[in-house]
Amino acid sequence: MKLNNILVSVLTLFLSVSVLAQSAPVQEPMIFENQQQEDRFNQLTQELRCLVCQNQNLADSDAQLAHDLRAEVHEMLLAGKTDDEIKTFMVERYGDFVLYRPPVQVNTYLLWLAPLVLLLIGALILRVNIKKRTTLLESTPDEASENRTE
Amino acid sequence: MNSRIFPLLGFMLLVVLLVVGLKIADKKTNLPSPLINKPVPEFDLPVLAQAGQTMSRESLLGKPYLVNFWGSWCVTCRAEHPVVTQLARLNAVYIVGMNFRDESEDAVAWLNRWGDPYDVSLVDYDGRTSIDFGVYAAPETFLVDPSGTIVFKHLGQLTWEIVENEILPRVASMESGS
Fold this sequence. Notes:
The structure holds two protein chains of two kinds.
Chain A: H1 2-21, H2 35-47, H3 64-78, H4 83-94, H5 109-139, H6 141-149
Helix pairs in contact in A: 2-3, 5-6
Chain B: H1 2-23, E1 44-46, E2 54-56, E3 65-70, H2 75-90, E4 94-100, H3 104-114, E5 120-124, H4 128-132, E6 140-144, E7 150-155, H5 160-177
Parallel strand pairs in B: 3-4, 4-5
Antiparallel strand pairs in B: 1-2, 3-6, 6-7
């Protein structure tokens, strides 16, 4: 019984430590005028890249630059800037790289269209293969079945 | 036969992509700045350790100059310091030290300890100007022409190679052009 109690408390301790070790969302308290503004802030900081820690967004990063840029976004929101204006502010300084969702423009056509092109190529290969098999089946049923068993 | 060659081709394509990816991996961190060929952002900043004095974008117009972002907290800036010093000795270009997100006492102590290569040191205490310059991290260096346009940017530690191949030729062409 006693041993059980100790075990339970040790386990609880480990659990609580591991919970503490998980990175809590880093956010300094920020005051917004309304819920909508706060939602826009959360949306924007998730779509903007933290530039020093390249695979994190502004919302998740604890880097100094991310702090400053969050403050900048916050200030612009309070000043009544639109989402587009805020994004333009960032792009003018840090380039398209700051956006997690790349804009559709000449140098990103390949990026946006490649999945569609690959899908079409796949469909084409599939079609050719199906056609080949059906003609094979229709023309010489015996040969086709032999081929299949091979 | 045909059905066997396709997976092989696909594999070869992946290998080519891998090789290309590895080849350009170190270039990915060197992102082009959208500020190249754009005017220098507006600034009006206090001069380090000179109470009351400020310097603005306008007061620097008319000559080429280098803007070097640094901080006493920045290890790479210390590593870069001999190169900046060597460049300063040439007297080829006016060098503005942008001390950002730093305490002025620390900055002055740093310059006293290692030597001051800057023609003028400005204080960007809250990092606002560094955001306008699109600075990611220190050190970053911008070359500005006499009309106040950014013509070159280097992200990270300056090396003598960059000074010789990128900065000095550009400064020379500005002077012969004007």
